[in-house]
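Exercise 7 asks you to align residues with tokens for two separate proteins.
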Amino acid sequence: MNIGERLREERVRLGYNQADFAAIAGVAKTSQFNYEKGERSPDAAYLAAVAEKGVDVLYVVTGQRAPTPEVSIGADEMETLQQIRALGAEDRGAVGRLLAAFSRK
């Protein structure tokens, strides 16, 4: 699969037609068509514009998806994590041992 095919795949995934996608990126519909056919390559300004709408630019350019976090954490978990990170090494070790003991039960 080439850049144009991946670009089209991303446009379809996000639910845009060529005309709307071209408008988002600030190019003519014919330019969008040419990008998707592989006759031209989009420039950095185009890629930045479509990235704002959710296009995985890394995927479009390289064929590899951008890594995504597997799990998002809530505000309470983030606060706990920040508190643990603020501890010294010895105290972090103690917290780790305590959590390990709780998880075994």
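Second protein for Exercise 7:
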Amino acid sequence: MQNEELLDDFHFTPTEESITDLVSASVGQRLANYIIDSIVMQTLLYFAIIAIDQSTYLAKNAESSFVFVFLGLALLPFGYLWGCEYFIGRTLGKLITGTRVVYDDGTRPSVISILVRTLARAVPFEPFSIFFNEDRIMWHDQWSHTMVVDVKKSVLSQDV
């Protein structure tokens, strides 16, 4: 009886809930994202190689230049994907196709989720993972618990 009295005294006032309606990006949009971002990364790598080649310091030290070039070329695509998706929520490909990375509830992914998403792209045959399940969800989406949504067709929460 005492518990019932306590429950009667509790007044819950619902707050405004964030309404989200998420529409996944189409396979065509995802393919366009991949192609555009690949072109951007190849262009960045091209200019990085030119800059490294022009460096007089690296020309004098062949061993250090190899390590520098290897690390630079490995980290440049990682930095592009992680930086764009974490700080902006979109890469250039996603900006052009009108898509965005979000959690399943429509909120902005955390730094760890974007890190997992970016590292998962290094797995061999990961671009083909879209064909390995019925839901057409890529591994980097599954493992990071994120999704790519069509911004124009989706209603997203305010914090994205």
